[in-house]
Design a protein that fits this description.
By secondary structure, this protein is an alpha/beta fold. It has a domain at 557-675. The chain is 34% helix and 20% strand. The chain contains 19 helices and 20 strands. It has a ten-stranded mixed sheet with strand order 1-2-3-5-4-6-7-10-11-12, with helices on both faces. It has an eight-stranded antiparallel sheet with strand order 13-14-15-16-17-18-19-20, covered by helices on one side. A two-stranded antiparallel ribbon has the order 8-9. Strand 10, helix 16 and strand 11 form a beta-alpha-beta unit. Helix 3 (155-167) packs antiparallel against helix 4 (180-201), helix 10 packs antiparallel against helix 11 and helix 11 packs antiparallel against helix 12. The two termini are 13 Å apart.
Length: 676
């Protein structure tokens, strides 16, 4: 059985970094010297005692509306830290949980992925050790333009552009922009998107330059000045490693330690980063498909050649979109079309995590059998689509707008005039088309950036991070698709005092998954000041590529030996439903059961609460009833009236702490009392 939510908040940090997939995420370092930030209430430290709770009180801190375990404070910072004559300001919000005991200082999380991810709504302390929580103030923030920090958004423009991409079909040549007509259409689409987006934001386009990563790093310095600490510890993940590195270059004397997880090599240009991502996503997909062949259960459903299964599906859908019926919780079915772009999008986003990769393999196995619904449900979750209408819902904790704005502001995609940069993007897109046959297209972010008002017009050259005298940990994975392994390794090799901890295999980012390596190493450094005896450490994870494959649930009740076996399979199957697997259980969610009916899950008094009506995970076994999962006891329970091949009333219990499962009640006219 698989129930991943004994710890309910995270399966690791990777869930919040999904927007990294298709863009050059290599922000620039500024060489300018910033002015001292103007903050509210004062430019001087408000803390005289090192008491963070008192400091937060002086700053007017209040429980964060989105995350009341943290205290939110708003500071006013210059719109442009690098121009003292510009008196405009922007509000930036920080969320703090003070140290529970003796305070060592602040542990600031450059946590948002993307760029565009909110830090505060996603803030949690569940992946920190007791020692870190005892001695450190945990600090998250929403970077300028995102979330609570004077957000900028063009949701309508983005939705139209994104849906056009997902639903377009290529009927000329091969996949990609390989004809003059397709290339011009792509250019026109990028121009229209940028113009519409900037207009919808309602901002003076010349001010977009002040939302780049160099300004974000100075916002952190403003917060440090406000709190009054001489030094602090800084963690950056994914795009957050750009914020962390930028701060380290500008203010090295203010860092007691630096941790980079899923690391960007900031010496790369936009196109170099995009092309590296294309190769990494493809390499990870191939490794996952090959790992399937080494898993007996997965190989059995894929015929021992998962790579061919994927390639055959991709070839089929590239020639003709696949039409399918999508069941809805209401009992209705809607007609849908699955496109090549949808397949690439879904495959890429499922490559971020070890568990997500296994879900993708199950959906691929279902597609091999002619059922596109599991793949479509993954698409809906990752792309934030309404299953009933196909509309783009958006992620309330992620700014699609700032993904483009920061990405295009920070980095260069080639140099020259706008037309010259566009031509180079198109040319490189054609060069890579076919050389990375399964997951490509990242380079075309450069088309939008060519039109973005604050985009650099010439190639940006940056000095590598050295971080002299700063203990710096680079956390890495050889199968990180979004921030390729070589980038982190290159950053490590240039450091003055660096340590490289990496997983052979692994997901995108490796801290906070509960693995002793790297978590214990980071804790020993943070709490005891203990540094590793080796500069490079290979972390051994099992599994490291994919979770053990769970075969698709049999289609008919006749495949099961007894009703306890049926419920045990349903227990596992529920935990692997995309809607459930990626949920944070903040509100009720309903999905259509595979063979009819509906299942609703959401927050309960002690954990999770369920209700289901006419729900069939296999033909001939229809359930109506309620259930729960108690986080404190680890007990999962379903109480159901059964109809179908047989009728009855059954109660299923799984104690995830002891491993005991039982089923009692009546089924088919017989008393049931089964235990395993």
């Amino acid at each position: 059985m698989i129930r991943k939510r004994l710890s309910t908040i995270l399966v690791g940090l990777g869930l919040f970094i999904m927007a990294c997939a298709f863009g050059g995420l290599i922000p620039s370092l500024s060489t300018e010297t910033p002015t001292v930030a103007t903050v509210v209430p004062a430019t001087q430290s408000v803390s005289q005692t090192g008491d963070m709770a008192a400091t937060l009180n002086q700053l007017g801190g209040q429980p964060c509306a989105e995350n009341p375990d943290f205290t939110c404070v708003t500071i006013q910072v210059p719109l442009n830290h690098f121009d003292t004559s510009n008196q405009e300001t922007v509000d930036v919000v920080f969320a703090v949980q003070p140290a529970l005991g003796e305070r060592y200082g602040m542990f600031v999380q450059a946590f948002p992925g993307g760029p565009g991810g909110e830090g505060i709504s996603n803030a949690t302390t569940s992946f920190f050790s007791d020692g870190i929580l005892e001695h450190y103030d945990i600090v998250f923030f929403d970077q300028r333009g995102v979330g609570l920090s004077d957000p900028l958004a063009c949701p309508s423009a983005y939705a139209d552009n994104f849906l056009d991409y997902l639903n377009e079909t290529d009927q000329a040549g091969i996949e990609g922009y390989d004809t003059p007509e397709e290339q011009q259409a792509a250019i026109d689409s990028a121009r229209a998107f940028v113009e519409t987006c900037v207009a919808e934001m309602g901002i003076d386009p010349t001010k977009l330059n002040f939302y780049g990563t160099n300004q974000v790093a100075e916002d952190l310095e403003s917060f440090r000045l406000t709190v009054g600490d001489e030094k602090f510890w800084l963690y950056g993940v994914s795009y957050g490693t750009a914020v962390a590195q930028t701060y380290a270059v500008a203010h090295p004397e203010r860092l007691a330690g630096l941790i980079l997880d899923g690391t960007i090599d900031m010496t790369l240009t936009g196109e170099e980063g995009a092309l590296a991502q294309e190769k990494a996503f493809n390499d990870v997909l191939v490794a996952v498909l090959q790992a399937c062949d080494q898993d007996e259960a997965c190989a059995a459903e894929m015929g021992g050649d998962a790579l061919s299964v994927y390639d055959n599906l991709a070839a089929q859908v590239s020639e003709t979109p696949i039409y399918y019926e999508l069941p809805l919780p209401t009992g209705e079915k809607v007609n849908r079309t699955f496109t090549f772009n949808q397949l690439e999008f879904t495959a890429a986003y499922q490559m971020y995590s070890i568990g997500g990769r296994m879900l993708f393999l199950r959906a691929l196995a279902a597609a091999k059998q002619g059922d596109m619904v599991p793949m479509a449900r993954l698409l809906h979750e990752q792309a934030s689509l309404d299953p009933a209408t196909g509309a783009y819902l958006g992620d309330p904790t992620f700014s699609d707008t700032m993904f483009y704005s920061v990405n295009c502001t920070d980095d260069s995609y080639y140099g020259g005039t706008q037309d010259e940069r566009i031509a180079q993007v198109i040319e490189e897109g054609q060069n890579s088309n076919g050389t990375v046959p399964r997951l490509d297209g990242s380079i075309y972010t450069g088309l939008s950036c060519a039109f973005w008002p604050s985009a650099p017009k010439q190639v940006i050259d940056r000095e590598p991070l050295v971080a002299e005298n700063i203990p710096t940990f680079v956390l890495n994975a050889t199968l990180d698709p979004a921030t390729p392994f070589q980038q982190g390794k290159s950053v490590f090799e240039r450091l003055d005092n660096g340590y490289h901890l990496y997983v052979e295999g692994g997901p995108h980012s490796i801290f906070g998954y509960g693995e002793t390596c790297p978590d214990d190493t980071i804790t020993r450094f943070m709490v005891n000041g203990e540094l590793p005896t080796q500069r490079e450490i290979v972390c051994s994870w099992d599994p490291a590529i994919i979770n053990d494959y769970v075969p698709l649930m049999p289609e008919d009740v006749s495949a099961f030996a007894d009703p306890l076996e049926i419920f045990s399979a349903i227990d596992t199957e529920l935990s692997l439903q995309p809607e459930y697997y990626y949920s944070y259980f903040t509100e009720d969610t309903t999905f259509a059961c595979p063979y009819g009916g509906s299942f609703t899950f959401g927050p309960g008094d002690a954990g999770e609460a369920y209700r289901f009506k006419d729900c069939a995970f296999t033909n001939g076994f229809v359930m109506t009833g309620t259930g729960s999962f108690d986080y404190s006891s680890g007990i999962f329970k379903l109480e159901a009236q059964i109809s179908g091949e047989k009728s009855g009333a059954l109660t299923y219990t799984n104690n995830y702490r002891s491993g005991a499962i039982s089923l009692s009640g009546e089924y088919g006219g017989e008393a049931i009392d089964l235990q395993r």
